[in-house]
Request: fold
Amino acid sequence: MRVIFTCGGTGGHINPAIAVAKILRERKPNSEILFVGADDGMEMDLVPREGFRLETVTISNYLRSFKPSAICHNVQTVFTIRRALRKAKRIIEDFKPDVILGTGGYASFPILSMGTKMGVPTALHEANAVPGLATRMVCDKVDRILVSFAESAEEYKNTDRVTAVGMPVREEFIYTKRAQARKELGIGEEKLIVSAWGSLGAREMNKKIAHFMKLECEESRYRHIHATGSFGWRWMPEYVLNQGVDLKQHPLVTMQEYIYNMPTVMAAADLIISRAGASTLNEIAAAGTPCIIVPSPNVTNNHQEKNANILQQRGAAVVIREAECDGAVLYQKAKELLEDEARCAKMRTALRQIAVIDSAERIYQIICDLAKSR
Reply:
């Protein structure tokens, strides 16, 4: 069985493809696996690290702006896409795949588009509640559309080809036990809050969390771990100190650039405060940890708010719009939730119902069926 996985840009697009590829490699060790991504994306690091072969195309995304610089960029992008399509055709001709799976990002467009034209069975996985641009450009042509949320099916014309499969997450998010995680982190009976705004960090939300921390330190009620992100780490420690908060005097509240052991930290947490990227929400669901979600307003099609609303409608999250919250509002919401054990229990149940723990297995079975149909 010969399979092309095409994805790119962020870990949220790349990691689901890697999860499915690992199952394929384990179940069918004689399979030939090829990843195709952009030559400037995270896939350049993540894919080879997992032992998979990677081919790249040069491609860039469209800028949704009418500024002269954006218009110039988009004109150049048209020619870049044409070259990427020609290279995609050569890759498919050389590799001769039995099936192609795309998991999102603009880097997936050339291979999926050319694969449909060349008669190769194709499937795409869309992580977000609403389809991204690359998905919209090929969804009418691929054989199967796989979505994270059942509610997303209505976004597509031909719902017969749409299947809700969840989103693959690392097994540690599913199986790490709360008691063991808290023991590893040295946490006793105190309530643990975990907050993060993504790998880069969000400046305005980091400022609001700084105010949140100040209120926390005044009351000393909870343990709190905050990840600033790489940009936030450059300025936030000094900013917090200038707010009159010396974290050295408040050991329950800690700040770090990244949380590298996130499955353990999520399992140990009583409350998570985060953005609403599809990958993050599915990890929270797998961990079953109550959450307050502040969707980023700076994303295409406002997809984070739509992702978050699905969880809120199922009773699995509290959603606050960024424009409607500050540190005090966040802290008050956190206290209300942490003191309401019954509501937290209901949220944990709702999150577990959302989580699809065999998502990678479901996608694997679908691409195997597609390969047989050729």
Notes: The chain has two domains: 2-167+358-372, 172-354. Residues 172-354 form a domain with the Rossmann fold fold (CATH 3.40.50.2000).
